[in-house]
Amino acid sequence: MKNETRVLRKSEVLKITGQSNTTIFERTKEGLFPTSISLGGRSVGYLEHEIYAVLTARAAGRSDKDIRELVTLMIAMRKVQADAFLDNLIA
Q1: Phi-psi region for residue 22, left (φ > 0), alpha (ψ -120 to 50) or beta?
Q2: Handedness of CA 21, 76, 48, 3 (dihedral sign)
Q3: What are the tens digits of pLDDT across the range 44-84?
Q4: 38 CB contacts (<8 Å, ≥6 apart)?
Q5: Residue 2's pLDDT band (cuts 50, 70, 90)
Q6: Which domains, and CATH codes, for the chain?
């Protein structure tokens, strides 16, 4: 099973989105941007597909309410996908 999840460091996210560190922090706090994931120690990253999903929703003119729901769903799906992946390894 090939895992194609790509993790972006914050500098890449800033470049891709064109947003400032402060804007990403504020939007994350408001539920309008995906949370980072721990990579161990003090390292964090962002899931590339989540960043592009939010950008695509913004480009499509989705409301903040819609984007908040999208972000909530994506974060919930992390556990579902991880559980499915691990169950597949064990089986």
Answers
A1: alpha
A2: positive
A3: 999 999 999 999 999 999 999 999 999 999 999 999 999 99
A4: 44
A5: low
A6: 7-90 (1.10.1660)
